Automatic annotation (TrEMBL):
The keyword Oxidoreductase applies. It comes from Pseudonocardia aurantiaca. Belongs to the NADH dehydrogenase family. Residues 438-448 have a biased composition (Basic and acidic residues). It holds the Pfam family Pyr_redox_2. Keywords: FAD, Flavoprotein, Membrane, Oxidoreductase, Transmembrane, Transmembrane helix. The chain crosses the membrane at residues 383-403. SUPFAM superfamilies: FAD/NAD(P)-binding domain. Residues 438-457 are annotated as: Disordered. InterPro entries: FAD/NAD-bd_sf, FAD/NAD-binding_dom, NADH-Q_oxidoreductase. Signal peptide: none annotated. This is NAD(P)/FAD-dependent oxidoreductase. Its cofactor is FAD.
Length: 457
């Protein structure tokens, strides 16, 4: 019997793994239902990932894009938030196993389970690149990139060796999708518009930004017209694009890249950033094995049209971690699938009726290119330039979580737009030490000693 008739006896127990867009929208769909929801996440915040690159490049603060889950869900009386990392799912006993901070193992029994744990950065089998080339998925990643980027200008300023100075002023971005394009454009913009008057021994505007991707153009998912526009804007910004390129090595001083002709070229770069691909986390493999589910090439779990795992109507997978009809890993898919999974439970415990299969409504996507310039693709409509930027602005204000964050972001963007201001650039002395350690340790060299005021060749 699929219908669950426990109402009045004991609330139906729903465990949601992940408080990203998928998990949050599932909880919202169940707001008025007689269910007891435990939303378990290893982070205490809901993160608006599409704006991570603005934290990484000093425009927004982390608090403006990460809202505490407890705060977001405080009026949802049937939701309990739990800070813990899910490490196992006992499918037969219907229990989620999680580690609380400190390592204590706890189990969470469920009647229905919604898994919305997202994806992680993929280095295509070269996880060793990660120590030199951080990806951009979490607040911690954004803060690492921020201190690497702004730290690079500081190291260039104090370097005595011109080669070293050039290396610090060279930034490599791997990946020409939205995140790669946004990072590359922002680094050129901050170098030319924000930092240009602040240094005495270097010209920040001389900073080189190299972009590498195996495909033939940036933003290919936006179609040829917008892709060409994006390429033109990036060229005008000064981004050096290398397409048909496969990165074969990354280390503290740069990267090795194989071009279309099969020749491997070395590029010296003090900062390498990775925005090239994603894969499902180990939790997906563990769950797929336990439930007998199939994973796609990126490790995402294949689901039925009602988003459940075959043979397990009590387990739904939503958002980036689900594989269905080749839907893209975007926020809108996560929101709509999360809402659907919540509604489906509502129907089951309510009148027992099943919902029509999940249908995705593509509301479009946007990517920021430069100040006042973005591309938006929505159904048959394509916008670029200032119109695209207005579309980008509307979408991001509409979906940023929390009214205060929306107002704060708009004010910050206004300052960034009119005065090229980037206020979020501070990092601590310990963080500078760590940057030096990463850079120096493999080569055992001394730290740069050039004192402020010393002239450079
Ligand atoms: C840099 C970047 C830019 C992006 N830009 C855009 C954009 O412009 N437009 C767009 O539509 N989409 C964009 N996306 C994609 C969009 O953010 C994702 O599609 C969306 O966040 C997916 O939602 P989700 O709920 O599936 O996963 P996530 O939002 O990733 O949430 C997963 C949650 O699960 C938690 N979690 C993971 N594993 C565990 C575990 N084992 N135990 C407990 N908790 C766990 C995580 O802490 C996280 O809170 C971007 C993504 C990134 C990284």
């Amino acid at each position: 019997m699929d219908r669950i008739a426990r109402i009045g006896v004991q609330p139906h127990r729903v465990v949601i793994v992940g408080g990203g867009f998928g998990g949050l929208f599932a909880a919202q769909a169940l707001r008025r239902s007689n269910v007891a929801i435990t939303l378990v996440d290893r982070a205490q915040h809901h993160l608006f990932q599409p704006l991570l690159y603005q934290v990484a490049t000093g425009i927004l603060s982390e608090g403006q894009i990460a809202a505490p889950l407890r705060d977001v869900l405080k009026r949802h009386r049937n939701v309990e938030c739990l800070l813990a990392e899910v490490v196992d799912i006992d499918v037969a006993a219907r229990k989620v196993v999680a580690l609380r901070p400190g390592g204590e193992r706890i189990t969470l029994p469920y009647d229905d389970l919604i898994v919305a744990a997202g994806v992680r950065q993929s280095y295509f089998g070269h996880d060793e690149f990660a120590q030199w080339a951080p990806g951009l998925k979490t607040i911690a990643d954004a803060l690492t990139i921020r201190r690497k980027v702004f730290g690079a200008f500081e190291f260039a300023e104090s370097a005595t060796d011109p080669d070293e100075q050039r290396r610090w002023l060279t930034f490599a971005v791997v990946g020409a999708g939205p995140t790669g394009v946004e990072l590359a454009g922002q680094i050129r913009e901050l170098a030319t518009r924000t930092l240009h008057a602040e240094f005495r021994h270097i010209r920040p505007e001389d900073a080189r930004v190299l972009m590498f991707d195996g495909c033939s153009a940036p933003l290919t998912s936006f179609g040829p017209k917008l892709s060409a526009k994006a390429a033109a804007v990036l060229r005008d910004l000064g981004v050096e694009m290398h397409f048909g390129s496969i990165v074969t090595g990354v280390d503290a001083e740069g990267l090795d890249v194989r071009d279309q002709a099969g020749t491997t070229v070395r590029h010296e770069a003090g900062t390498v950033l990775w925005a090239a691909g994603v894969e499902a986390p180990p939790l997906a493999e563990m769950l797929a094995k336990a439930a007998g589910a199939v994973q796609d090439r990126a490790g995402r779990i294949e689901v039925r049209p009602d988003l459940t795992i075959p043979g397990h109507p009590e387990i739904a997978i939503v958002g980036d971690m689900m594989s269905l009809h080749k839907l893209p890993g975007v926020a809108e898919v996560a929101m709509q699938s999360g809402l659907y999974a919540g509604r489906r439970i509502r129907h089951r415990i309510g009148d027992g009726k099943s919902l029509a299969p999940f249908r995705y409504y593509d509301l479009g996507s946007a990517a920021y290119l430069a100040r006042g310039n973005a591309v938006v693709s929505a159904g048959p409509l394509r916008f670029a330039g200032f119109a695209g930027w207005l579309g980008w602005l509307f979408i991001h204000i509409a979906f940023l979580t929390g009214f205060r964050n929306r107002v704060g972001a708009v004010l910050t963007w206004a300052a960034a737009f009119t005065r090229d201001a980037r206020r979020e650039r501070a990092f601590t002395t310990q963080q500078i030490e760590r940057l030096h350690d990463v850079y120096d340790a493999p080569r055992g060299r001394d730290r740069p000693t050039n004192a402020p005021g010393q002239s450079q060749p």
